[in-house]
Amino acid sequence: MTAPAMGGRGRVTSAWRKRLEILFFVTPALALFGLFVVWPIITAVQLSVYRWKGFGPLVDFVGLRNYVTVLADDVFVNSIVHNLIIVGGSIAIQLPLGLAIALLLNRKMWGQGLLRTIIFVPYVLAEVIAGVVWFQLLQPEYGVIDGLLGAVGLRAPEQGWLGDPDLALWTVLVVLTWKYLGLAVILFLAGLQGVPDELYEAAQLDGASWWQVQRKITVPLLGPTMRTWAFLSMIGALQLFDMVWILTGGGPANSTTTMATYLINQGTRSQNFGIAGAASVILFVIALIMAVLYQQLILSRDTRSDVVTARRKKTKKVIR
């Protein structure tokens, strides 16, 4: 009778030891997550229902009035449109361009490693450095871009690429494409390594053209990688701040204002921390909704396919 009891105690002790080990390793990560993610969100929600200039206690409670003010502000509404334009433009430009470059660099060629490094370098540059460099390049009259255009007989915009309200946002989009295209290329190259060579060989034996091989084999198998990259690109574009802040500061005439630059302007320059808090909560909600919808409508197909594959493998093992 004693042996089973001792065995039961041993199992209980082992279970508690595993729980304590998990708690030991997870607690630091949860603490950092709570400190740098959960607490700022709670603070932003708290500030959003007060009128507060940054000094003194929170006493002027205004409820949802700050949210009404933000949503009624044409500058903020336009900033949402600007973010959505950047989301759509980034995916529409970087996806085909990144895929084409990845397919090119996936072939054995001279200087392959050097070309990969050159394309990836802009991504690893700090946004501040990249922004300052492009700000100098795009300066009217003495900027390198205007100088090159003048050398070939072309005329640059009189107000400059970043000073013309009709061109500023698209100029920022070009700079963002240069900055983040390397991430798409590297991810696509990594995905291409997972495509079996046997499929290409079978397609060649069947007489498939290069275009048919890419359309029927490469792109479908690269789908999960492309969808993951598009998700990262979408979230990054919704939170875009530093590059716009350095290049234009949201101008000219608020033509490049994003949700992030709007709330920073309201908080640091206008001292309207309640308005800034409301704008940050709205930004969080918009990003959360788009992330959940993307997960449910697009990324879920990859999850379902993985589950189906795992079930098929398990069934085969059982049959064997």
Automatic annotation (TrEMBL):
<dbReference type="InterPro" id="IPR000515">
    <property type="entry name" value="MetI-like"/>
</dbReference>
<feature type="transmembrane region" description="Helical">
    <location>
        <begin position="273"/>
        <end position="294"/>
    </location>
</feature>
<dbReference type="InterPro" id="IPR051393">
    <property type="entry name" value="ABC_transporter_permease"/>
</dbReference>
<dbReference type="Pfam" id="PF00528">
    <property type="entry name" value="BPD_transp_1"/>
</dbReference>
<protein>
    <submittedName>
        <fullName>Raffinose/stachyose/melibiose transport system permease protein</fullName>
    </submittedName>
</protein>
<feature type="domain" description="ABC transmembrane type-1">
    <location>
        <begin position="80"/>
        <end position="294"/>
    </location>
</feature>
<keyword id="KW-0812">Transmembrane</keyword>
<feature type="transmembrane region" description="Helical">
    <location>
        <begin position="80"/>
        <end position="105"/>
    </location>
</feature>
<keyword id="KW-0472">Membrane</keyword>
<dbReference type="InterPro" id="IPR035906">
    <property type="entry name" value="MetI-like_sf"/>
</dbReference>
<feature type="transmembrane region" description="Helical">
    <location>
        <begin position="117"/>
        <end position="137"/>
    </location>
</feature>
<comment type="similarity">
    <text>Belongs to the binding-protein-dependent transport system permease family.</text>
</comment>
<feature type="transmembrane region" description="Helical">
    <location>
        <begin position="20"/>
        <end position="42"/>
    </location>
</feature>
<feature type="transmembrane region" description="Helical">
    <location>
        <begin position="229"/>
        <end position="253"/>
    </location>
</feature>
<keyword id="KW-1133">Transmembrane helix</keyword>
<keyword id="KW-0813">Transport</keyword>
<keyword id="KW-1003">Cell membrane</keyword>
<feature type="transmembrane region" description="Helical">
    <location>
        <begin position="167"/>
        <end position="190"/>
    </location>
</feature>
